Amino acid sequence: MKLIWIAAFSVLSLAGCQKASACSAPTDQKQWSIRAQDALGKVDSWDSLHDYYKAYVQNICQSGGIEDSYVDAVAIRFTRHWPELDRYAALSTNDSGFKAFVMAKLATPLYGLDDARTTYKLARDQCPAAFNQQCSEIMQALLTAYPITIKDN
Question: Quick one: which of 76, 12, 2 has its CA closest to 45?
């Protein structure tokens, strides 16, 4: 019975990887989680979120516990720091993995409805002309999680 639980846990752990072939588990999961949570708490800009992505997310299995924190970090960047959209645009244009990471966070119901509405309205109503493509992608990602609910507000 113990072997069945171990096998099931292993399969579920691999399911959290973005790319199973590129997923590498840290040697000390507990220490890695502590460092990752600490570093995520220090994210205060798109640049630091990108640095965090490169250090802790890229090629690492994502655990469910920290997923909420990833989503919160993205929500804060969009809802409270919309004028910094130019930094997001520059980073996401040069790093498609980072862009996919951010879009995935927008496309999940973990990205709360209030944040989704706020971000959608900002992208729809306050998008600088130079970033129309990014705003369109942001709105599309949000509509994945909230198809009708946010569009009409």
Answer: 76
DSSP type of residue 62: P
Whether pTM > 0.70 for this model: the answer is yes
Domain definitions of the chain by residue range:
26-145
**Closest to 108 (Cα-Cα) out of 96, 98, 116, 117:** 116
Residue 141 pLDDT: 96
Count of other CB atoms within 10 angstroms of residue 5: 9
Write out the two tokens for 105: 């966070």
Q: For the chain, what is the radius of gyration of the CA atoms?
A: 17
All residues at 6 or more sequence positions from 130 whose CB lies less than 8 Å from its CB, including other chains: 86, 89
Q: pLDDT grade, residue 35 (50/70/90)?
A: confident
Structure tokens given for 110? 């973990």
CA 137 to chain centre: 14
Long-range contacts of 149-153 (CB under 8 A, 24+ apart): 149/113, 149/116, 149/117, 150/113, 150/116, 150/117, 150/120, 151/120, 153/117, 153/120, 153/121
Whose tokens are 């113990």? That residue is 2
